[in-house]
Structure formats: C-alpha cells, structure tokens
Hints:
Elements: H1 20-23, E1 29-35, E2 41-47, E3 58-60, E4 67-69, H2 87-94, H3 97-115
Antiparallel strand pairs: 1-2, 3-4
Amino acid sequence: MVAGSSAIRGSRVGAGPMGEQDRGFHAERVAVSYWDALGNETVRYFAANLPTEEIPDVIDCPQSGLPAGRDKENPPLMPKTEPYKTHLAYVKERRTDEEAAQLLEEALQQLRARRGTTAP
Length: 120
C-alpha cells in the first residue's frame, strides 16, 4: 500500500451495498404521457393511488416549453404570441383622442396653477 493513500477514497462514510432493503419501499406509480403541438412526448409518473381528477390534463413540455396534453391526436394549440405593447399603447386602447386631449388640458391647467402662470 502506498503511504498516504486511503482504501476508502471516493466512498461516503457508512456507505455499503445498495439495494431495495436500504432504499426503502417504492410506491406503485402510473405513467402518464403528454404530447405538445410539435409531437414531443413527455412521460410523468404519479402515485397509483392518486385520484384521476388530481392528475393534471395539461403540463409544460420540457423540450419545447409549449403546453402538452394527454390526448395525442388533439394536443393543446400553440399559444398566440402577442407583440410587445408599450404603456402608451395600452392607454390608447382605453382612451379616445378626445378623452386624451381633455385629460392633457386638465393636467396642463393644474400645472400652470401650481406654477402661478396663466394659459396663453
């Protein structure tokens, strides 16, 4: 034996033969397949005694990030991507041009009142 070497290098303290008796009881489980719109299949395992209504109908596919459903022939549709909207775009959806002009005029009057200036 070489001086300074350890016979148990790479082993955990208390490590021994691993087997079913050391790992504990494995619960019965069921495999549920999910498919996304691209045809990717994902399998999730659930406890066999879990009521079927508690097993989700839709999950996020880890390969594509799309929603995946349990019906292979009719997977969930790809979500429609909305373009990015600025704050101004959302405001314009809620207000007409006339309302916007009225609000602007009210805000300008308040500002002028605070500054002590009059409108031209």
